[in-house]
Amino acid sequence: MTINLKLEDEQLIQKPLQSGEFSSAEEVIHHALKSLDDKEDWLQESREAINEKIERGFAQFERGEGLTPEESLTRLEAKKVAWRAEQRRG
Questions:
Q1: pLDDT (tens digit, 0 to 9) for every residue of the chain, 90 residues total?
Q2: Cα separations (Å) of 41 from 27, 46, 54?
Q3: Contact predicate 32/22, CB 8 Å
């Protein structure tokens, strides 16, 4: 199989090669394709749970239990701070 890559894609392949993480372009491409496949598998396995959460959110919003954009951002920021702190400890 022959694949023509855009310059941008070649540069994306060169980055992990230069870091030494991979020893060949083929390894980089295989890793990228495997990651894409794993992501798709996860989405398929999680689709029902994701849809249930979306439906629950819509129901909460319809009952007036929704958050303002500011409240949502505040909660997300707090989660991000907690996650970063955990990453530093671990």
A1: 899 999 999 999 999 999 999 999 999 999 999 999 999 999 999 999 999 999 998 999 899 888 888 999 999 999 999 999 999 997
A2: 21, 8, 20
A3: no
Neighbours of 41 (CB within 10 A): 10
Tally of residues, the chain = 90
Could you write out the three-class secondary structure of 38-51?
HHHHHHHHHHHHHH
Rounded to a whole number of angstroms, the CA Rg of the chain reads: 20
pTM summary value: 0.56
Residue with token string 């990453």: 87
Q: Which two tokens stand for residue 6?
A: 């855009």
What 3-state DSSP class applies to 23? coil
User: Which letter does DSSP use for residue 3 in this model?
Assistant: -
